[in-house]
Amino acid sequence: MTSSITARLIELAARRFGRDASALSPSDDLFEALEIDSVQAMDLLTDLEDAFDVEIPDYELQDARTFAALGEVIGRRAS
Amino acid sequence: MTTTFRGKTMSWEPVEGVLEVRLHREPANEIGTTTLTELEHLVRVIGEGAAGCRALLWRSEVKRGFCAGADLRELHAGLVERKEQVGPLRRVARALPTGAQDLLREGARRVSQPVVRRKVGQFIDRIHAAFDALDQAPIPTVAAVHGVCLGGGLELALTADVIIADKNARFGFPELRLGLIPGFGGLPRLSRDLGNAVARDLLLTGRTIRASRAHELGLVSQIAANGQAPEIARAVTRQMIRFDPRVTAQAKAFAKPLPRADLDREKETFLRMVTDPAVLDALTTFVQDEGPMPWLPGGSR
User: Fold this and answer.
1) CB contact under 8 A, B212 and A50
2) Is there a contact between B279 and B273 (Cβ–Cβ < 8 Å)?
3) How many C-beta neighbours within 10 Å does residue B273 have?
């Protein structure tokens, strides 16, 4: 389940920030790969919370260094 | 008094009986002394009849959001200037024996702290007076919020009677990262409006919440599609001004008491905390942080 969540979040993040999803890997550092600033980080949080219908505290996004780790964070909260 | 105003940080004009206040200080409407001076002007306008208007609407013209909070660069510059003024004393201290060094350093700290407390205290007293007046304005007030609404920005929004938010709005109190609590009256107002548990959650974690969560909690009255909050807020004010303004003023005064004791306690606590040298270190880290999440500790990862 977590891998499908990770794949979906990569797709969402790539679309939001105009990146090529196929060039992003679950093990990539998501902030480095997406090259986003603080306002974009907030936009990403809102997008992910809306898409997966979960609440993601900022500190969990901050601590999740990779797409895969963030996928696990979302997986723990998604029903 | 003229009915329209064009300032450096905000402008206002009457629109169909509603005083529309537009925030337009790039990059994110940070609240410093210029904003405060213009807010005080707005308070005077409201006190003199609100340019004939019967409601007030806040909105931001800045893309990043409603308001990112206090102007921390201005606060940082003020504290650095104070530190530099006592710097010569510290240099003299280095030439003295150890015991005398400690005495002189302690003396410099004692000289510096009351000045910081007085300077910051003057700002805090003024902004509390302005925010209290906005909170207790005799006309209904509505804030149309999008994007970031953090710290002092959330505190400003909390002075409004009703908050309308775009879906992309996010709310939070990141002040603990700086070694401070919010200082513009936000915690007492949030506790008054939503309860202390919500205030503690936002304060003690520093996390932000999206508009839909803020709506569930009761902070936000209505959610708008992105970009539509001002239009929905206008519809709210059109409804509000249909009532007899004398009745509305009395109803608001009853429904929105000022949490005076907690506001005083907040000021006292904030001013005690701001004199801690760790605050300057935290502000220095913040102003140099170009990471993606500067509102959290370790923001630059």
Assistant:
1) yes
2) yes
3) 16
Chain B hits for A50, Cβ within 8 Å: 167, 210, 212
- Minimum distance, in Å, between the CA of residue B181 and any CA atom of chain A: 19
Are the C-beta atoms of residues B266 and B183 closer than 8 Å to each other? yes
Q: Give the residue numbers of B annotated as catalytic, written as ranges.
A: 155, 175
Report the distance separating Cα B108 and Cα B113, nearest Å: 9
Q: Which residues of A touch B208 (CB under 8 A)?
A: 42, 45, 58
From first to last of the 79 residues of chain A, give the pLDDT tens digit: 678 999 999 999 999 999 999 999 999 998 899 988 888 888 999 999 999 999 999 999 888 889 999 999 999 998 6
**Full set of structural domains in chain A with CATH:** 2-77 (1.10.1200.10)
Q: Which of B148, B168, B208 sits opposite A58 (nearest CB)?
A: B208
Structural tokens at position B118: 């007085």
The shortest C-alpha distance from B210 to chain A (Å) reads: 6
Chain A CB within 8 Å of residue B168 CB: yes
pLDDT at B113 exceeding the cut of 90: no
Stronger pLDDT, B108 or B73, i.e. the higher one: B73
Size of interface A-B (CB pairs under 8 A): 59
Domain ranges of chain B: 5-288
B64 contact A CB<8A? yes
* Helix, strand, or coil (residue B53): coil
Angle B98-135/B87-94 helices, nearest 10 degrees? 160
At B155, which helix (H) or strand (E)? helix B152-157
Q: Which CATH number fits domain B5-288: 3.40.50.410, 3.90.226.10, 3.10.350.10, 3.40.50.720?
A: 3.90.226.10
